[in-house]
UniProtKB/TrEMBL annotation:
GO molecular function: kinase activity
Name of this chain's protein: histidine kinase
KW NADP (keyword) present: no
Transmembrane regions: 26-43, 55-88, 94-112, 119-138
Domain (Histidine kinase) ranges: 165-366
Presence of the UniProt keyword Kinase in the record: yes
Amino acid sequence: MLFAVAGLLALVGILNDPLHTGRLLLVAACDLTLAVAGLLGPWRRLGRYAPGFLGLAGFAVLGLSTWSFGGVAAGTGPFLVLLYAWAALHFPRWILSLFALPATLAYLVPLIMTGQPPLVLGSAAVLMPIALAVAFLIEAQARHLRDERERLSRIEQWRAAMINTLAHDVRAPLGTVRLVLEELEETATAPQTKMIGAALRQTSRIARLADGLLDVQRIDSTGHLKLDRAPHPAHLLVKDALSYVREDADVRAEVDENLVVYVDKQRFEQILMNLVTNALRYGRPPVIVRFTRDATGDRLEVRDHGPGIPDHLRPRLFGQFAVGGDQGVGLGLWIVRQLAVAHGGQAAAEARERGVAMVVTFPAPPGDQPQQ
């Protein structure tokens, strides 16, 4: 792009200096040739520092340009600095230092050839150190950003490996625990059966949480989830999901028994459990679960009666790691939003006079008319 702009400016310069049309056409041709070479050259195969030869060629064309304008370096200086800035974004300092000699020659030789006074020649003593200093500053910042990007890439690889390992390795011991609990259930007394049943439900939930971790990784890597959607009675979905909530929790469900929703049952359970768990952890009872339908589709609302959420936090509440703290890492609501989007809906936080309502919308089942 830099060479293309230089070539176009050389063509525009013909309008101001028609006496040097031939020279300016030569400069434009050289710049545009370098632009095409920069765009189409097989630089990846030639090596990391191979594009540096474009810089050397660029300095030569700058010198030709100065000579073409009769020793006027008003355009050469800025483009020389820009060439150095481009080099600083891609090459280490030793290459920038090697550029100092050809850059200085490209600036001085045409001035000497056109008989410029010593004062003009002396401008190189100011321009070249400035160009080199600017390049070093840019190179340092670019190197810092590259190092930071590599560090974040390593962290991301470690995180992905940790999630996969945790999610996969937790399944084997869970399977063993489940088998033991099922055998104990066959010979247990009534009170024991109740406790074992609760343990089995929580074991199943941990297995689904492991699947959820894999979902996080899958969303990050592919950007989407595969859903198994089907019509389900809404009140049974909510009842089954809330069976995993501790018995002493003040959670109340208000769901029309005639409402049928079109969702992935397992993913819906993840959504509801994440919202209810958050409401119990950060809000105050009672927690109200409502599932309704209007003209826009189905609407799941989980409301608590706690202190609420500040206005400045609500827009980013469903972001990844947005509001993690001592009690969590900030993934629960992000997963809720991803699952809602996968269903074709949305997730949002709405303020209430007391507390906050987490709202997830779903499209109505195909062919269904909205309930009035």
